[in-house]
Amino acid sequence: MSEIGQKSKSLKLPSTITVRELATIVGASPIEVIKLLMSNGVMASINQTVDFDTAAIVASELGFEASLDVPELEKKDLGEIPLWRQTILKEPQDKLRPRPPVVAILGHVDHGKTSLLDAIRHANVASGEAGGITQHIGAYQTELKGKTITFLDTPGHSAFTAMRARGAQGADIVVLVVAADDGVMPQTKEAAAHAKAAQVPIIVAMNKIDKPNADPNRLKQQLAEIGLVPDEWGGDTIVIGLSAKQRTGIEDLLEAILLVGENMNILANPDGAPMGTVIEAKVEKARGPVSTLLIQNGSLEVGDTVVVGTTYGRLKALFDYRGRKIRKAGPATPVEVMGLNDVPSAGDLFQVVPSERDARIIITERLQAKLKDTASKKAGVTLEQLFDQYKAGDLKELRIVLKADVQGSLEPIVSSLNDLSAGDIKIHILHAETGNIGENDVMLASASKAIILGFNVQADAGARRLAEAEAVSIRVYDIIYRLIEDVEKALKGMLEPEFKEVVTGQAEVKAVFKISKVGNIAGCRITSGEIRRNSKVHLKRKGEVIFQGEISSLKHLQEDVKEVRSGFECGISLKGFSEFAPGDIIEAFLIEKVEAA
Length: 597
Ligand code: GDP
What we know:
By secondary structure, this protein is an alpha+beta fold. Helix content is 30%, strand content 33%. Helix 9 (216-225) links the parallel strand 10 and strand 11 (238-241). Helix 1 packs across helix 2, helix 13 runs parallel beside helix 16 (480-492) and helix 14 packs parallel to helix 15. Guanosine-5'-diphosphate is lined by residues 107, 109-115, 207-208, 210-211, 243-245.
């Protein structure tokens, strides 16, 4: 039996979402979502992101109708000034020089972003560029009347979003592409919200005006409705009609960009502190890690030592967007660089430091900070933490993943737990099933902030490791009322400390001896640690615990002994179990109190 989430009909999803988040939102297990994705031909792991369309298909198969969640303007973003902008503000005024504007092209799918980027590239070719730009490094430059514009040329708006998310705000201007025959669509609104949140001016490219069903007036009306009032209607949004396909209106757009750029007074110090943003990065067989960097202040030169995130290196070679080797590049230039020791993340800020030693010091600090961060960010799904969240009102219910040995014990536990669910206290059993606790259970619990309760079952090694990494609480019981009592106590905030088993030694059964009065004795060799006469033990066969109990006798060379250490042989008999077989493992363990987190 398995009760999964509360299903309502409609659901809002962001434009991209991780498998884990999607599973949480639809109240399914990540594995279930992964399977659904696979059946639709998409292979994705739990931490990978899928786009809205894909997520919507999964949601619909689980009975939800998904619509795109257009983010509201995030106020807190507005005050955030990226480090490179702060740096430029601190540069001496007399050193600042105008630099080319950096432009991101955003818009709804199929409205013509790629076509427009191609058309602009082509315009560049027309202005005398031999051979055109065949390279794709994530950004390129074009010229109009001797003035340069830098375009970010990444699929969709992923780079722009990544930059904004990290506060880098790489683009100075956003060109919002809207197809005149289709009008303002969800991703148009989303892109506009992104640009507004980053305080980046928007120019609207009204594309596909060549189409017979293009309706510029309707589009302008729709733009006005989302706060982008066209300048010809007295607003401050420039709207340029064009056809990316027929390559008309491209120059008007470039002119508008230069005009907006000039009004913005876009400056940088070419001789200042070199820094900027990673546009994209990949590993190439022949060249190793190759990254495209957008220089936002200062200049970058072969031989410079660069630190970005937790990667660093001396720049061995620089290439421009045409793939030509260069020695040095200045502000607003995209360059492809070789020499970093690894692949940095798109959107990360890079900086130049005096030496590789400095780079390593910075990276060590960053790694330590990261470790601290992850330690303090551990999901927090121990019963104690859950109770705190519950009390603080952050959590509306106590979520439980329940595993039991047989259906017969599952049912009374479920009904007793549901009985606890009275008044303010809400218990939600996400999943109840027979069988050992596995990794899937831990994933489900982690994703949905639940605890795992087991009755007469074990957690496998993989599940334990994952539970530790994800800070998911697993509690195993052999008496039903103890389980119920603990949950009740947890809800009342009176939980007793948690205990865990610590293995102190293992012995392998080599032979079985029948002794008339005593029963069976296992002739063993201690393979690790030690086994004590008063130890509690598991008896494992083929990796599975088939008995748990106490030792009744421990002998070494016919003598009763208190303990036997690794490397020695011994005879072991257990209270209540005598069906030993050669190859069985007897594992001694202690019960230790787990300090509350
Ligand atoms: P993207 O998803 O925004 O990158 O859109 P694409 O650039 O891939 O264009 C989507 C479709 O619209 C393609 O079939 C293009 O050929 C077509 N398209 C793009 N621009 C125009 C245009 O100006 N006029 C017409 N008629 N079709 C266009």
